[in-house]
């Protein structure tokens, strides 16, 4: 009897089932972890929150699905850990002569956003407000000219445009957010 070939819909159903099972397992682990109250270094009792976790699934040009997580819940050695810093959802768009990075950092003032290019191939985004913090290091797909960088912030969306190639700085170049 010949083996039935699986189509893309069967594969997608299987991935969705696996993701649902993983979320159920993570939810059980989170609930067990969140019941515990941790003591901070100042001696005050502190319960963590809010908890932000999300993911997106994209399929690259090679056909391999890629899962990106964002938020302030991370898995370290298989256990969920809560961080005060949220990891924003980021898109990196590479064009012929430029790289555009789009990051979701809602709820902060543009004056509290720091964007740096380091070594010509890494972008670091950090932002703070009274009730939230964001931090993300992004490996760029090509070397960029740090001096050409431009950043804008509108409606919670940070957009950084960098021209490809150029000078490299070990200390990094800070980019003014407009």
Automatic annotation (TrEMBL):
Keywords: Stress response. Residues 85-178 form the CS domain. This is Heat-shock protein Hsp20. Gene3D superfamilies: 2.60.40.790. NCBIfam families: Hsp20. Belongs to the small heat shock protein (HSP20) family. One of its GO terms (biological process) is response to heat. It comes from Saccharolobus caldissimus. InterPro entries: A-crystallin/Hsp20_dom, CS_dom, HSP20-like_chaperone, HSP21-like. Residues 80-178 form the SHSP domain.
